[in-house]
Amino acid sequence: MKTIKFTILALCICLLAGCKVGGTVKGLKGKLELTEINSGESLIITENGPFFFEHEFEEGDKYYVEITQQPIEPSQTCRIENNEGVVKERPIRDIMIKCEDDEIMCPAVYMPVCAIVTEPIVCVTSPCIPPKHYKTFANSCAAEAAGAEVVLYDECGRLEGQPVDSIAMVPFATTLFDRGDRITINETPTIKNHLLTVNVSYSGGCARHDFNLFGDTAFNRTPIITPIEPTPIPFPDPLNPNDNASITFIEPIKEGGAYIKVSDSVMLFHNDNDDMCDAFITENIVFDLTPLRNAFQRTFNRKHGEVELQITAPASIPEGSKAPLRMYSVIYIF
Q1: In 30, 40, 49, 182, which residue has its Cα 20 to 30 A from 140's Cα atom?
Q2: Predicted structure pTM score
Q3: How many domains does the chain have?
């Protein structure tokens, strides 16, 4: 008798209020569009979990749900099950949609790129910061397929396998080292993509030497009286180097009604770890500037920008010397 009462109650739900058709989505990372063909209703889904169409079906109505737009960013293929039938005495909840990432087919072309790879780990503490390192990929497509961030359109060279944190620029440090140990910057540093290369000389040879690059706690802003034109920066496809169609223009920054030039005071510090040897060593050291780029984007709310790096090495002159500290100016465009 209880079963009969329950069936009658469930039947009344669809007869009086109508029943909805829906189900569950799993594995979705982008935007998915569904359409219930008989009612013509479309539904955009951006999150995993349960979903329902707004249309109210009556008992005996047929329903047929299909995927009308697969996820594009990132590219996925979603498959649907239990997507058709007849509405009976209760809402439809068993439509199942499962989404999987599409396999990226990359060309067999060797145009190497150096990218940052995040190592998969199982976090047991909080906060959890997965380690990252540099790795050379055959081309940018292969790097993208691996979920890596390209920082240099060339082989990683000496960066190969190195942890990112060991050479990254320390962003906006509020505590600087003391002068540090003696070091000389031999020439104007260079920037390629997001990597700053500094040619230095120092004494040592019997211990590991550490180098740190510190950015200022705030960007310097210099008013510009003469109007400036937007800076064009090409972003060619590494697989199609002759294609210059992709060009982005960096618009000048305006604050308080005036255009400004953005710069950043950058200091290079050297720690010889009490190396007692006196061999004269000259080498290139490389720093990742992406922390500086990220800070610029947060500060000025812009994806692309131009910053003048004013680089000095406090220990390049003897302590107590009245000689001026040499500054190297390098433009970082991203």
Answers
A1: 30
A2: 0.52
A3: 3
